[in-house]
Structure formats: structure tokens, C-alpha cells
Write a structure and sequence with these properties.
The complex is a heterodimer of chains A (about 600) and B (about 400).
Chain A lengths: L1 H21 L4 H27 L7 H18 L3 H23 L4 H21 L5 E2 L17 H23 L1 H11 L1 H6 L4 H27 L1 E2 L1 H5 L1 H14 L5 H24 L3 H16 L4 H17 L28 E12 L2 E12 L3 E5 L6 H8 L7 E6 L2 E2 L5 H6 L2 E3 L12 H9 L6 H14 L15 H14 L4 E5 L7 H16 L3 E5 L3 H7 L2 E6 L2 E6 L1 H4 L3 H8 L1 H8 L1
Parallel strand pairs in A: 5-10, 5-11, 8-9, 9-10
Antiparallel strand pairs in A: 1-2, 3-4, 3-6, 6-7, 11-12
Helix pairs in contact in A: 1-6, 2-6, 2-7, 2-9, 2-11, 2-12, 3-4, 3-5, 3-9, 4-9, 6-7, 6-9, 7-9, 11-12, 12-13, 17-18, 17-19, 18-19, 23-24
Chain B lengths: L1 H28 L5 E7 L6 H20 L11 E7 L4 H14 L3 E6 L3 H13 L4 E3 L14 E3 L4 H20 L5 E7 L2 H17 L3 E8 L7 H10 L3 E5 L3 H13 L9 E4 L8 H4 L2 H4 L3 E4 L8 H11 L6 H20 L4 H10 L27 E6 L2 E6 L14
Helix pairs in contact in B: 2-12, 3-4, 5-6, 12-13
Classes of the chains: A alpha/beta (about 600), B alpha/beta (about 400).
Amino acid sequence: MLRMRSFLPPLLFTIAYAVVSLGVTNSYYQLILTLVPVWAVFGLSWNLLSGYTGLISFGHAAFFGIGAYATALGQIYFDISPWLLIPVAAMLGGIAGLLIGFPTFRLQGHYFALAMLAYPLAILYVFEWLGFQEVTLPIKRDAPIAYMQFADPRLYTLLGLAIMLATIVLTQVIERSRFGMALLAIKQNEAAAEAAGIDTLAWKLRAITLSGAIAAAIGGFYAQVLLVVTPASVFGMLVSAQALTVVMFGGVGTVWGPVIGSVILIPLAEILHAEAGARIPGIQGVIFGLAIVCVILLAPEGLFWKLRDLLRKRDVSKATVNDAPEATAAKVTTLKPGSQQRAATGEVVLEVRNLSRSFGGLKAVQDVSFKLHKNEILGIIGPNGAGKTTLFNLLNGFLKPNQGEVLIDGRNMSGQRPHTICEAGIGRTFQVMRPFLRMSILDNVVVGAYVRARSDGEARKLAADAVARVGLSAVADRVAGELSTKELRLMELARAIAGQPRILLLDETLAGLGHGEADEVVAVIQQLARDGMTIAIIEHTMQAMVRLVDRFLVLDHGAVITEGLPEVVTRDSRVIEAYLGKKWAGHAAN
Amino acid sequence: MTTKSKITITRRTLLAGASGTLIASRAWAQQPAEVKVGLLVPISGLYARPGTVMREGAEMAVDHINAQGGVKALGGAKLKLVVLDSGDTTEKAKNAAQRMVAQETDLVAASGAYLSSFTLAVTEVTERASLPVLTLSYSDLITERGFKYVFQTAATAGSQARQALPQIIKLAETASGKRPKTVAILTDNTGASIASAKAMREGLLAENQLQLIVDETFTPPLADATSLVQKIRSAKPDLLFFLPTVISDAKLLLEKMNEFGLGQGKIPTISFGIAIAEPDMLQTVSPELLQGVLTCVASWGAKGHEALIAELKTRYKEPWMTQNAISTYGDMWVIKDALEKAGKADRVAVGEALRTMDAGPSKYYPLGEIKFDEKGRRVGAGMTIVQWQAGVPVTVFPPALALAQPFWPKN
């Protein structure tokens, strides 16, 4: 029901656009009306990859051009109708996406963007070398409709609109599904996404394949509109830039961004070209560029988000009067002293044997062995640089150990990819929080639930359950950007437990919290342990830890110094020495 | 207040309306009416310079035609030039063409659009709108699509190479006393260059008993010409065919040739296309380096055009008349002739007139007649060879049009 409603705005928009275009008889205006959906769809295809995953592609023209050339050459050499060639082009674009994505996804950030830039430029020269500098579509005077050559230009617009509507709906379906969530999680923090059980490479490949297919299909349609295909007009820098421009202008990571960008920019560029360019040649580029610069400066994420933020701000200022600051963690039981009887009794769920990892000459983790028993809370402490986070990274697969084993339920999992280890039942949180600021708490948590959930509905249920367990149900619909540090920590915790792990690795979950706040989070963690979760936690602040954990593991310089009950460990002179230096070890003993 | 302003607005609109009607009726009364001719060329972006020169040629022609009494068959109707900017991409050119046919509905013919890929896109639109277009673009493709409303005034790329080669060999033979045997081709990979180089490789060189010993294709713009020039130095060809499209590439190669001691005629250099003879060349390359360099172009200011060349110089400060100026100048006259023949300001009639016209020897295009074959190619279209002499590229071939004698660079 909710889903149907979200399809309504694009449908209404498309119908309104179609009605307007049907009334336009001037073939020049009609051409502009046709180009708007063309660039909107191209923007949407870019958005599908780059907007949602955050991996900026400067080379989407590669797919666009492959589609355009496939459609043109197929007609010239094999006399196939574009009705058939455009789907074929989409397939070729998808294959190209896969072939390009597979090697290129090894790179990240700017490196990915720059590598993508190379593909269309390289392909451009290949097509020039092949002698396809200028390719014109043959006129089919006897069967124009069968070859998509309409005498009435309005039909092109309608066809373009149909492709646009289909792409919007597809994007919306993806946005709300596991697919979209996975992509968003990758955008926010690829490592965290892996840790949450998302096979990031597989999802990225799916995204670039689909994105390439859409770009190639619209490229094929564009060739049909332009009638002439040259390498520069379909593989050129400006084509790739066009996708970025409409999306950056309209809004990144939303289905409406490319549409808004295209509806405003394409006609604007043409009007400037026709009106201003006739008086001062070249001025159109200056005005167009300035307009884009201004919008990017004023609304860095695009018009859509700027407008939405403005609207939301107005709504919020109206609403806050009623629901003043609420007690969020009201339901959480108050802090109780740690119940030591759990310690060391249950079965061993995680066993680490002689784990070592060094970075060059630095032995970050050396020969660490310990056991984690079912239902216990193990505190891993040690001074800065002791190797705590490296140990976690070895446990959940971010790093491969040089030596040693990690046994989960007796199975050696060391060296596996993070999402595989997550599936095996290890969840983790991170020292630096990476919430999806524009999404609600519930949506943030859903990302973590997919590792266990088979359907979208099940994932929502698991997420709601996890939110309830950390006591955030009352604010589940609030946007993460409005939350306090404590609530964000709890949300991260909920995301980690939404995947129903049996073992939870918490990396400095109490960092940055005030005294009272830390107590609330500690209470939640204790409750989780009571409910059957096994927890390993890294922390600096001893105070809260002493009351929380069942057992301590103390690391220094990558090696285990000691292990044992809190009261014993905190009095150990080696521990005090590690934290405070030799001088204080003597003092503490007294 | 509001009512008052409303009244004034109504009054003003009324007044405007009335005066509008007055003007319109006066225009109606003023016989003969104007006849609109389109010019769709790049006047912004990368190709703005040649496009601007084309506009200058067209403006001169329209002024001359109107000064000589306009179109007599239409009661002395004056020509009016409508200039549209094709921009610097194929898409922009196509959009501009669509704008031209949709909004300038009373155009009778047009000229355009400089680059052959632009012309291809533009004529896809004008063909469907039955608007005749004259073009100096010489890609063979333009007139191979079975279109009825496109007229190619220049010899096609393949034909130009075919005409030029024997002339160049003859020139070399008479000047140096021996026939050249080996050649090198250095070409960029743009459409026109590829077409010319292809024609040479596939038969033309063999027909003229020339042996191809270096064959290099590069992508503009060149970053460094050293490796190309080294290949030429080690092969020592008798002739170098050099086909750049970008001025900076021409400069880079000529300078590097000079640096390696191959310049200024040590290895005679023959180019195709206008890039190496553009006025802008002199801004970056010294005249000594260019001395003797030959280029084969579709058209050039030549014998009989002296007055035009002088006018272009004084009116627009152009140092000489390139193919862009003279061809577009000629286009306007051909359109005028077609209007005279058609007897009415109607695009279909003008198209028909162009297809059937036979206006005798060509005055502004090199050789041939003002007559088009069934493909829309000008019958007997020749080409010109231009040589840099004392800092000016002058026409040296064909003899009928030559403004100076060619010389063969001596070692």
C-alpha cells in the first residue's frame, strides 16, 4: 500500500509532462522536451551507482556511448530495428558494467573516480581507430515506425518519458529494498557495511551492471534522436559531465535529483544558447557555469535536499512545541553490578589461538590467545596503541592474520571476508560512528538486519526488535542527524544486533559519553548479555568497565599481559605499569 | 490604485497593438519583402574562429547582392541573413538546426555547418524540413545518404586527394628535376584527415608510383612530436603528407622538424585542410618556418577575388581569404541565383531550382560549374593548392586561379 503511494508522484509528474508536451507543436521545443527525459534517465543511471554507493564515476559516457553505437551500427550493418537494438544495447551496457566494475572496484575514492574517467576516453579512441568518426542512421522512408523514426516528434518525447518512468520506478524499488540499503551502507562506510554482513563487491557489481544497462539503453535512444553518432558526442568528457551535472544540481542519492536537474538545466542551457548566445557568442557557457557554481555553493547536495531540509525545518519548528525532549531510554532497567556467576562457565563460542599480525616492523598483535565463553562480557583493555582495534579487525576479517587461528564454534574462520564472518554470527560496532544522517533510526538499523532476513518485511521486523532492545523505540522515526551522541551509540548497537549475532564486538562504545549517559548504555549492554549475547568490548574508561565486564583481557604492545576477573586485573602491577608507567606501579601497590 | 494601473496597462497595450498593426501594414505595403537566408555555423566554442570567418563572408555577399538590387525575380527583394550558432558539439548543432527549421519558418535556404559531423547532424534535420542547405564540408558521407536538400559545393575528400597528388608530383618534378618516390603520412584521426589519408593509402599513392615508408596516425592534440619527427628523419622520405586539424599540432610538428634540421624545405611538407594556413598560425609560428609549406584545400581566395580579399582585409581585418570566407560568400550568390530561377521565396522551389540549375562556370568555388549532380555534389568541383610565401598562404594551383607561382623548396 505504502509502496503504491510512492509510485504516485512520478506517475503524476510523467502524465503532466506528457500532457504539456502533447500541446507543443514547435519541433524545436519538442526536441528540448525529448532531451529532458534522456538526460534525466542518464542522470538516474549515474545516480544508481554513484549517488547511492558514493563511488563517483567520471566515466558513465562509456556505457552511454556503447549503447548509442550499438544502436547505430546495428541498424547500418545488420538492418535491425532499434526497438530490438535498444534492449540489446542495454545488455551490452550491463556486460560492460560488469567488465569495468570488476577490476575498478579494487580502487576507492578518488582513485575509482579517475580510473572510471579513463574508460570512455579509451573507448573513444578505439571507435575513432575503427573508422566510426561519423555514423549516420539510415533513413527508412518505407517503414519509419518499425525503425523508430517518427514524423511526429512528440512520440520521441512520449517514448523518452516511458523510459524515464520505468527507470524512476526501478530506482524506487531498489531504494527501498535490501539492494538500496546495501548501496547506502557502502556509501556511508564500506568497511562497516562488510562488517554488517553485506557482500559489498557483489552489490557494487550489481549496481554498476544495472547502471550500465540503463545508461546504454538511453544512449541507444539518444542516437535515435540525434540521428548522427560521433565518438565525441557519446563518449566525450561532456557526456560524462552531463550526468554529474544534472544529479549534483538536482540532488544526489534521490530519485528526484536527476529529474529536477534535467528539467531545469537542459532547457536553461538551450534557452541561453538560443537567446544569449545569439547576442554574445559564448556567454551561454558562462551563465550556465555560474548558475551551477551558485547552486553547488548554496546547496552542496543538490536542490532536492536543500528544499527538503527547509521544509523539514519548518515542520520541526512547528512540532517541537508539543513533543519537547523526551526521555528516550526510559524503559531500560537501571544499572546493576555485573553478575560474575556467568564467567567462564558456558561453552567456548570463540577461540583465538596464537594470533599475530605485523605491519612492516611493527608487531601490532603478537601471539594472542584467549577464549570467549557463551554469555560472558569480556573487556579488552590496554593503553593506546596496545593493538585492541587491530585485534578486532583480525577477528571480524578486516585484516588477515599473519599467523594463528580464529575459531568460531570450533570452525577456523581466520582470513575470511568480513561479511562471511558476520554471517557466521559476529557483529561489531565502530569507534568512529558512521550513521546515515538523513535516514530515520529504524532505516539505519535495517541495514544491519539483512544478513539474517530473507525478505524486506522480515528485515524491518528484526530492525524494530533491535531498536526496542536498545530502548530507542520511542524515537525510531527520528532522523539520525537530530540525535545525541548517546542515542547514536545506542543506534549503532541496534544495527549490530539487528543481524542477530551471537557474538558482539564493541569498539569503544562508551567513548564520548558523559557519566550518566555511559551508565545507560552499560545497562543496555548488560541486558543484552542477560538475553544470551556474548560480548567482547574495548574500552579506555575503566570506571564503567569494571562494573560491566565479567573478565578482562589486558593487552600491551600487541601481546596479552594478563587475563582475569576485574578486581584482580585492576590491582595487577603489570597492568598499572602499562597504563601509567613504572613510576606509578609502585604507588598503586600501596 | 490597482484599477488605475490596470487601465494604463490596457491603454499601453492598445497603443502598442495599434502601432504594431501600423508597422505591420507598412511592411506589407513596402514591396519587395525580405527573403531570409540562414547561416548555421559555430560562432561560440572551439570552432568559433572559422565560423566567424564564414559569417563575414556571408555578410559581405548579402551586402553585395542587396547593393546590386537584390533578387530581381522577386521585384528586387533584399536578402536577410539569419545567423544561428551551431555551438561546438554535434548535439548543439542538431538542436540549433531544429531551432532553425521550427522558428525561422520563412527561410528559403541555408549554409553551414563547418565541421562535417555538424553538417551531417544539421542536414538530418533540414532534409526532413525540406530546407536546402549548401555546405563546404567535404566528407563523402554527406552526399551519400540519398538526401535531396543538401548541396556540396566542395570536392569531396577522396576526390581532393585524387586531384592534388599528380599536381604535387608534377610540381616537384619541374622544380627539383627528379620525381619523388617515397612518402610519409602523418595524420591525426579526425574524420576529414582520415578520409584523405585513406584515399591515398588505398590506391592513390600506388597510382602515382609513390611508396609509403612512414605511416603514423596521432590523436590531437599532440603533447610532443619528437618521436614522429625521429621516424621521419630516419626514413628520409621525398615527401611528407601532414594532415593536422588543430593549429597547435601543426605548430608543434613544424617546429620540431626545424629543430631536427628537416624544416624549411629539407623535406617538402604537404598538408591537407585549412589548419596549417589559418591566420592564427602566424601568432605562434614564424613565417620562415612556414615558408614553402603547401596545403590542399577545398577553396581559397584566388585570382579574380582580389577585390573581395581587399574588402575582407579592410572590413574585418582578416589578413587573407580562407576557404571559409570565400565558400560562404559563394553560397549566398548561389542561393540568390536559385531564387531568381525559382521565382518565388519558397524553400521547396529553391531546392528544386538548385537541383536543376546550370549557371555556368563557377566564380567563387574553384573550377567546375554551378550545377549539382543527382547526389548533390557540384559538377566538376576542383580544389586549390595553397603555398606559404613570405608569410601569406597564396593560391598556386590551379593555374587559372593562381595568384603566385609555386616554388619547390630547395635543400
